[in-house]
């Protein structure tokens, strides 16, 4: 707690705003944006690489949370204060840090894809070194934001950063050295389904007798996240072969077309994510609400991987028709 008290002592309104903004780099919405930009505009292989790292990182992170059930710092030490604006987004157990896991996974993948002999993101010379340095700094400041805001301990952050780094390097080796990319991705998807099912079974096997309301809430959050992960894995399992065989979209395009692909697509994904929640909850009322959670994330992934990319060739044609008509 000494380091957290040190951060508490240097807080200021300006630093609060800065770290509240930086910590969003580890949020789910930022991951969705980063993954879609990479997948739609840079490299499908790199997109699957990033999805794999963040998927397995989230599964491991969530399982460890339910396994160790470490309370947040302000619960462990009632005298410690946090930046209040961060409290609402700091639900669940403390160990390990999900935001750290996401940020190191996202920026680690991008940096790794700009490094080595087999580069999925092609930059050269000074630009490449600057981009890698920026990725490292963004990951670092996201980690620091969790400590500054007071929502995690150094151990929470260090363990998450280490696990994410291992996954970044491990999946980089896999994607760079497989002879058959399809076989590798199908194997990874199968493992996603196995891990998601296993985590779901584990989350529902936890004893809930004689536990407090806070623990019950956190376990229910873990169960909900398990359905999210299972639905997302199922979405990739169905979408990948369909996109590979029928959609076959091209990531390359002019900057203007890339913008026209990504901004409306991202907004539609977020719209589906937010607006599909209530209707599905209503439809599955009286049943296991987890089915609604899984179905929503299945639709999100299927739309992002298959449905929206079908529009890319038409977006490009319409754009160039408009340009030529001027």
Describe this structure in words.
The protein is mainly α and 326 residues long. The chain has 2 domains: 1-177, no CATH class; 181-326, no CATH class. Helix content is 76%, strand content 0%. The chain has 14 helices and no strands. Helix 4 (44-68) packs parallel to helix 9 (181-205) and helix 9 runs antiparallel to helix 10 (213-247). The longest helix is centred in the C-terminal third of the chain and has 35 residues, at 213-247. It starts with a helix and ends with a helix.
Secondary structure: elements and pairs:
Layout: H1 2-9, H2 13-22, H3 28-42, H4 44-68, H5 73-76, H6 98-113, H7 125-148, H8 154-177, H9 181-205, H10 213-247, H11 255-275, H12 277-283, H13 289-307, H14 312-325
Helix pairs in contact: 2-7, 3-4, 3-6, 3-11, 4-6, 4-8, 4-9, 4-10, 6-7, 6-8, 7-8, 9-10, 10-13, 11-13, 11-14, 12-13
Major beta-sheet overview: none
How many extended strands? 0
Number of domains: 2
Order of helices and strands: HHHHHHHHHHHHHH
Question: What general outline do the C-alpha atoms trace?
Answer: globular
- Number of helical regions: 14
N- to C-terminal distance: 64 Å
Beta-sheet strand percentage? under 5%
Outline the low-pLDDT stretches: none
The mean pLDDT is 93
What is the share of helical residues?
Answer: over 70%
Q: What is the oligomer described by this structure?
A: single chain
The radius of gyration over CA amounts to: 21 Å
Q: What structural class should be given to the helix and strand makeup?
A: mainly alpha
